[in-house]
Write a structure and sequence with these properties.
By secondary structure, the chain is mainly alpha-helical. It has helices at 11-29, 38-43, 72-79, 83-89, 99-102, 129-146, 150-166, 178-201, 208-217, 227-232, 238-250, 263-274, 277-287, 293-301, 321-326, 364-375, 385-396, 400-408, 419-429, 441-451, 454-467, 470-495; strands at residues 329-333, 343-346, 351-355, 358-360, 412-414.
């Protein structure tokens, strides 16, 4: 990002490189040991399909491509072809962060909890023992406030414990028997719901310096609880609990003063009433069963719109916010805080780039990196929306001056420190990330068309040079006034003394 002018590769090369990298991301996150023929990916066909090879009957003695082979290993490939579809139909698993992301030295601490463990992956760590001792007290308060018998709540958790165990990576929960695992799910679920309730009431019973850390820890990929466990504890009023959970997740991010979105529940209602009756039950059921809190946060930040598969984004060069401002492009906050709510509004000689407002604090880096880790999971949505958003912001932010420009226009709410720290944060987060080239294709194309219009650029640069500050504008008015007086004086000297005939 440091070089303002980059080589512009062919469109097909960009698409193919992104495809290969996205495949590699998915394979790395699932610890898969599958070899991929990169050449076949770049050609868009199966491996070895060249000059007729791979066609039915061309190189296998006339046998159809799905015929059995004498090699047991080759036969197993064809027989197990449906395993991927079967795994997708099951509950999405709560994955580990991929080694590719964890190996970035500056980001290693962003994936581990600071004060509380939720679920089995970090359970029992000595540094988390203090908050572990608080879970029984939080569970007691949750049971008391719900006015439901503790046995009833526990039985509800036991009923879903087996399904909840399947949400974690196979083998990661083997050291807990059914009773121990159900107890862990019960205490962790009560802790999460009690913290959500108390956070909205501003009374958590936890010291203030730990509240921010607990909130941060609840949105780590490896620190998630299956949402079905939380649902089992949402008594007596499940609908109220769902609304409170939605509001709690919303409060973890900044919202625009013109906030119009309703979050996860409103998304469900819109999809319910705007879809055909035939598709309502299937899609609503999928949306009403979020995977975990981090999945809800991802759903609030990313809408479900599908980008045009034929459109591709292509920057001819990287341009920071300051460079775009000099070219006549102004910045304004979007009406929602969804990462996909990015638009460009062209005008006669100017343009307006609308970006979602974002609050930047000590937990921002951890939150975005865990969302990126979630998107790289095999069972996660394929949009790579958060990854693409971070790459887009990384293009706009090079230096502290770029942060200042976005901050002064209400897009970045800086609670982290200096503008330079914010710039460094975005540059570190986006390191080694590859965006979905279709996500912001329309916006990038409109910016490129504006930037390639030489007349607009000339006018914008002239106005930026001479009217960037009030003092230059006043100086320009003074010069115009002085020129007018000079012309008027010249006219008087030439014609003022002459008498009419």
């Amino acid at each position: 990002m440091e070089n303002p002018q980059l080589y512009k590769p062919p469109q097909s090369t960009i698409s193919n490189c992104c495809t290969v990298h996205l495949v590699y991301q998915r394979m790395a996150s699932s610890n898969s040991d599958i070899s991929v023929d990169v050449g076949s990916l770049l050609k868009g066909g199966p491996a070895g399909k060249e000059d007729g090879v791979g066609e039915s009957g061309a190189s296998n003695g006339g046998q159809p491509p799905n015929s059995s082979s004498h090699d047991p290993w080759l036969s197993s490939i064809m027989e197990n072809g449906g395993l991927e579809e079967k795994s997708k139909s099951q509950h999405p698993k709560i994955q580990h962060v991929s080694a590719m992301l964890r190996n970035v030295e500056s980001n290693k601490k962003c994936y581990d909890p600071f004060v509380v463990s939720i679920g089995p992956y970090h359970h029992g760590k000595p540094e988390l023992a203090f908050m572990e001792s608080r879970k029984m007290a939080m569970a007691r308060q949750h049971v008391t406030d719900s006015k439901v018998a503790i046995q009833t709540l526990y039985d509800n958790v036991v009923a879903v414990a087996e399904e909840a165990r399947k949400c974690y990576i196979e083998g990661s929960t083997d050291k807990w028997d059914d009773r121990q695992f159900a107890q862990m799910m019960f205490l962790d679920g009560c802790f999460v719901l009690r913290f959500i309730c108390c956070s909205l009431d501003k009374e958590t019973g936890i010291k203030s310096h730990n509240i921010a850390f607990v909130r941060r820890d609840l949105f780590l990929l490896e620190n998630q609880l299956p949402f079905l466990v939380l649902e089992a504890l949402m008594l007596p009023d499940k609908n109220k609990w769902l609304k409170d959970t939605n509001l709690f997740v919303e409060n973890t991010r900044a919202r625009s003063p013109h906030h119009q979105e309703g979050g996860w529940l409103d998304g469900i209602m819109k999809s319910f009433f705007n879809r055909d009756r035939k598709d309502r039950s299937k899609e609503t059921k999928q949306q009403q069963q979020p995977v975990h809190l981090l999945g809800i946060l991802h759903g609030q930040l990313i809408d479900q719109s599908v980008p045009d598969p034929l459109s591709m984004s292509e920057w001819s060069s990287y341009r920071s916010a300051i460079e775009l401002k000099a070219a006549g492009i102004h910045f304004k906050p979007s009406k929602t805080s969804r990462c996909m709510d990015v638009s460009f509004e062209p005008a006669m000689s100017f343009g307006t780039l609308r970006l979602p407002p974002i609050m930047v604090d000590d937990s921002t880096k951890s939150m975005f990196l865990n969302l990126v880790a979630y998107e790289s999971c095999p069972d996660a949505p394929d949009d790579f929306g958060i990854t693409s958003y971070l790459c887009f912001m990384d293009v706009l932010i090079d230096h502290a001056e770029d942060v200042k420009e976005l901050r002064s226009n209400g897009i970045l709410l800086n609670f982290l420190g200096s503008d330079k720290e914010v710039a460094n944060l975005f540059n570190e987060i986006a390191r080694d990330l590859v965006p979905n080239p279709r996500v912001y294709a329309k916006v990038i194309g409109e910016i490129e068309r504006h930037y390639n219009n030489k007349a607009k650029i000339w006018i914008a640069e002239w106005l930026h040079t001479h009217f960037s500050t009030p003092w230059t504008f006043l100086a320009f008015l003074g010069a115009i006034f002085a020129l007018a007086l000079s012309c008027f004086q010249t006219y008087l000297d030439a014609y003022g003394d002459k008498k009419p005939n």
